[in-house]
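Human:
Take a look at this sequence-structure pair and walk me through the tokens.
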Amino acid sequence: MNYKLLAIDLDGTLLTDDKRILKENKEVLAILAQKGLEIIIATGRRYWSAKNFAKELGIELTILANNGNIVRRISDDKVLIANYLDREDFNRVVKKGREIGLYPILHVDHYEEGYDLLIEEDEEGIKYSNYVKKNVIRHKKIKNILDYEESKILVICYENSYETLREFEEKIHKEYPQKFNTHILMNGLDVEPMLEIMSLKGSKWLSLKNYAKDRGIDESQIIAIGDDNNDVEMVEKAGLGIAMKNGTDKIKNAADIITKKTNNEAGVSQILKEIFRI
């Protein structure tokens, strides 16, 4: 097959557990880019964060950030695709979460203004974990997150136990069917599991498919590599879907190939060398 586009997840895939891009991965991606293969980073991370890693590769590429809800090219930061949550849907989810003591980290599209996250003021220390309070950067605090007046909401994100998040996810889908795209991230996190709630149009695969179509690239000419539950759809539907050895059972079941090496062993480099015989 004449593959033309390669979409790679970051955390647990291209990045090691300590958030490095291994030399082997950089080298093979540089070779493939020189051969004309278009490379895309498809990640749940914010664009700002993903761009910092992408620049290490030294190649021009496009980033599908926030699980495809915002797509920008790194050469000029131009927005190519944006999928925002409906205001009423956003209000419903936040209010439902509060009923059971869940408070969101809100991913928003304010890259040019210098912030990407909104969190509520937390003077009593009950809304967010110590990890979130100590590690959020490029964020803005707001007294009541429902007072956010703009409509550039990309993702509503909750951190909690898997059982609590799964129950809330099921409740949202039951009460508001066909309204949201959701998944719970489980793999290699430094925090508890994370529930992400987005527009139905927002997914790595949908944005990847639309981007490829605009470039005249057929779905069968796409390779997708990932490790977690937010990668399942693109790995399942791409022309060639690859799951990392360290990936979740769900993504391994969806993949055509599973790497022989983990993200800490340059599994991306290993499988791409086999596929492209380099």
About this structure: The chain is about 30% helix and 25% strand. The chain has two domains: 5-82+202-276, 87-199.
